[in-house]
Amino acid sequence: MGMKVYGPAASTNVARVLVCLEEVDAEYELVHVDMPSGEHKNPEHLVRNPFGQVPAFQDGELILTESRAIAKYVLRKGGSQLLRECNLSESAVVNVWLEVEAAHFNSAMSPIIFQCFVVPMVMGGTPDMKIVEENLNKLKKALEVYEARLSKFKYLVGDFFSLADLSHFPTAYYLLGGPHASVIDAYPHVKAWIADIMARPSVKKVTELMKMPSV
Ligand code: GS8
């Protein structure tokens, strides 16, 4: 039995797992979870993810949740160098920037994506601009730090690509495709870095899946 990912590809946290599977050219099955009808709260899904969220991941007897933990498992299993585990300090810094992604970039982008995509397109509502503005300010503070870092190094950890960079792709994809894409114009190194990430074959493949509503 191969690896299975449960969730819609359009979910940022699901896309983070998919891109790692693509990086290591793994065989996997993407099992769609219909979130608008609440399938993620069904008892069968709660066995896989007790928080009633996506993604859930299964490899034989092993069931995992939390996209970044799943991403690491997939990369280790596939023998990828994106975690830099042959080098103690480099792998430590990969983990630092993976935490930064979750705590600063994703935590600002997540409510922006919810307001600008999910509210109008899935819920038929109007975005709460106060929430959007607050989180854009939070995002800009993070981007200042990123800009300084990326003026010194080509990528977040150093002059090599790592999971820390790759993990930003799903939320960066929505930033670029949303109404606030011009925010990154003030940060030229960040802009070039995001373009570099988006050009990766694994990322291109997963962005195609993200555009397909039933996947
Ligand atoms: C977050 C999962 C999550 O928020 C991870 O996997 O990294 N820290 C976890 N999933 C959202 C979908 S957004 O991509 C989700 O399932 N939301 C539905 C809900 O909370 O009911």
UniProtKB/TrEMBL annotation:
PROSITE patterns: GST_CTER (PS50405), GST_NTER (PS50404). GO terms for biological process: glutathione metabolic process; response to herbicide. The keyword Transferase applies. Its EC number is 2.5.1.18. Keywords: Transferase. GO terms for molecular function: glutathione binding; glutathione transferase activity. This is glutathione transferase. The lineage of its organism: Eukaryota, Viridiplantae, Streptophyta, Embryophyta, Tracheophyta. The gene is ga22859.
